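Quick one: examine the sequence and fold tokens given here and explain what the tokens say about the fold. Here goes:
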Amino acid sequence: MTENKSIEIICPACGQDTILKRTPRYDGFKRSGDDLNCASCGHSFACESKVPFKVKKKNITFDPSELEAKPEVFKKGEAARLCRLCANYVVNPFIQRCALLRKEVEATDTCRHFKKQKQPPKPS
């Protein structure tokens, strides 16, 4: 419930640059909300809109207009014949082999004996 919520605050009571402490509040066995307190002095906030969160400054290293287009590693159609996409490609924890040529290969190797798999491997 508290994922991705900011915790850095500047407390109005003690003036410290500190963090917000969220403690679950229960009504019997049902969670009814959160108690919001300063971690330094314990000052209570009525609701999240009353909390003075620190504003994070964006550190812009590059102007988006300076960034280049995504580089192309393979020529068009070149990546379609990689060993990892071949039906003869066999993987085990220690070595990758070609079942047809019976030799060690790398996933990015190519050869003229390429045979397309029926189902491409799922990315992990």
About this structure: The chain has a mean pLDDT of 84. The first strand starts at residue 8 and ends at 10.
